[in-house]
Design a protein that fits this description.
107 residues, mainly alpha, 6 helices, elongated
């Protein structure tokens, strides 16, 4: 009986880890190449960048102090966003807007 419970527990842990990993891999920071500032400004309107800024402020500030976008370059921000987009529970489009906002204002 103990063996069966241990096996069931192990299966549940593995399933949980797999479900989390699938969510992380599907973020914009994982799937799309990091755009340059110029590419962001060509691809996103001022309104969309404003929406990204609002999402950044409203979601990221819940858990920790906000870092200024100028504090990192686009590549470093992309690495941060790989971890933070899933934690903030942003969908793909929201993650795309946040990343655009941050890159538009990055170092």
């Amino acid at each position: 009986m103990k063996s069966l419970l241990k096996t069931l527990g192990l299966v549940l842990v593995v399933l949980f880890l797999v479900s989390c990993a699938a969510r992380i891999v599907n973020t914009v920071a994982h799937l799309e190449p990091v755009p340059t500032k110029a590419e962001v400004h060509e691809s996103f309107s001022a309104e969309e960048l404003g929406q990204g800024g609002a999402l950044f402020t409203n979601n990221c500030d819940k858990c920790h102090k906000l870092f200024e976008p100028e504090s990192r370059d686009a590549e470093k921000w992309n690495e941060v966003l790989k971890r933070m987009i899933p934690k903030a529970k942003l969908n793909y489009e929201e993650g795309k807007l946040v990343r655009a906002y941050i890159i538009a204002h990055s170092e």
